[in-house]
Amino acid sequence: MRAERRSELDLQINLLSEQKLAKVIALLEELRRDIPPIHNREDPVAHAMTKPLDPRAVIWALEATFDAPSNTPSAAAQAEIDPASATKR
Questions:
Q1: Contact residues for 30 (Cβ-Cβ < 8 A; gap 6+)
Q2: Which contacts of 25-33 are long-range, i.e. CB under 8 A and separated by 24 or more positions?
Q3: What is the distance between the alpha carbons of residues 73 and 59, in angstroms, rounded to a whole number?
Q4: Following DSSP, what letter does each residue of 3-58 receive, concatenated?
Q5: So what's the pLDDT on residue 24?
Q6: What range does the domain containing 14 cover?
Q7: DSSP code of 79?
Q8: Statement: the pTM of the whole predicted model exceeds 0.90
Q9: Is 74 left (phi over 0), alpha (psi -120 to 50) or beta?
C-alpha cells in the first residue's frame, strides 16, 4: 500500500513538473518571438511541448502498458477524473 501511495505521489509530482516546464517553454517561445534580433522561425517541437500532458491519458497509458486486468481506470485515475469519487472511499 505504501509503495502504491509513493508511486501515485511521484506521478503527481512528475505531472506538475511537466506542466511547469510546458509553461516555461511557452514563455520562452513568446520571448523569442518578441525580440527583434532573433529570427522568428517556427519550431514545431517547441510548440508541441507548450501543451501540457493530459494526466488521465498518462494514467490510462500506464495501465495499458502494465496490462491492467480491466479497461476501467484505477481508483487514482477515477479520482483524477471525478474528485467527488475520492471522498466516497
A1: none
A2: 25/49, 25/50, 26/50
A3: 8
A4: HHHHHHHHHHHHHHHHHHHHHHHHHHHHHHHH-TTS-----HHHHHHTSPP-HHHH
A5: 92
A6: 2-87
A7: H
A8: no
A9: beta
Residue whose entry in the numeric block shows the C-alpha cell 518578441: 34
CA distance 63 to 19: 21
Query: What tens digit of pLDDT does each residue of 3-38 get?
Result: 888 888 898 888 889 889 989 998 988 888 888 777
Cα distance between residue 15 and residue 21, in whole Å? 10
Q: Is the pLDDT of residue 66 over 50?
A: yes
How far is residue 10's CA from residue 36's CA, in Å, rounded to a whole number? 41
Q: Which residue has the cell 508511486?
A: 7
Residue 43 in grid coordinates: 519550431
> What is the number of domains present in the chain?
1
